[in-house]
Predict the structure of Acyl-CoA thioesterase.
Amino acid sequence: MRWADMDMLGHVNNVTYVDYLQEARIDMLATHAPVQGGEELAEGTVVVRHEVHYVSPLVFRQEPVTIECWVTEIRAASFTMAYEIVDVVDGERVVHLRATTIISPFVFAEERPRRLSASEKEALSGWLEPGFESAGPVPAVPAPGARHVFPLFVRWSDVDAYGHVNNVTYFEYFQESRIAYLWGLPRPEDGDWTPWVVAQTDVEYRRPILFRREPYAVHSWVHAVGGRSAVLVSEIRDDDHVLARARVVMVAFDRETQRSAAMNPAQHGRLEAEVSG
């Protein structure tokens, strides 16, 4: 864990968790396969979908945190992994995060997915255990358009060894567009908005994002509002093509109690107006 992993609330930032998961996944596939045959899956794959549920905050300390990961489903051309980031405190197991990732083997030279080989399936089966219930498909941003459009410039450092924007970086793109959207809304007259923490993020990867000078566009919309939470859906688009889609559940948060809180009434009303406006 690095000091730079922390956000303004003193917690590990929601994007950084996904980086942790990627490192754990590559380590598992590259060095801990129960049988030979799965080594290529450490690198020759693309992420199709992430579902990330943030259970409890993780704060900076020098001791390592444990990431448990395993395989929950093996299909013809994809497999699903599950993760938990955990601690043991006073003999009790504390879960900070639960997540699942759908992964497809990929032929990068030809820019196409491929089927799993028999040896790869055998290697993956050594980790096979039950997983978590899926959150379901991410809803589309409704036509004729979003409440907010964010110009997305890809940085050279966002691109991985295969020439695609890395799957973790999409979470950062959605975070930047979300912050720009919410900060741009009118503020209540009786004070600042109640702070947010992210409780759940689901990302569907539909097409690769490539480096270019021209910006892509992130379209965002408030999908639903509750007393203490709101759901934001976003799409990264290239003209009419949807490259990725995300659903983020945000929960209002009390800095002092470190627990969920009711939203400022004006804040709640403003977000409801975004849903119905």
Notes: The chain has two domains: 1-134, 136-277. The chain is about 20% helix and 35% strand.
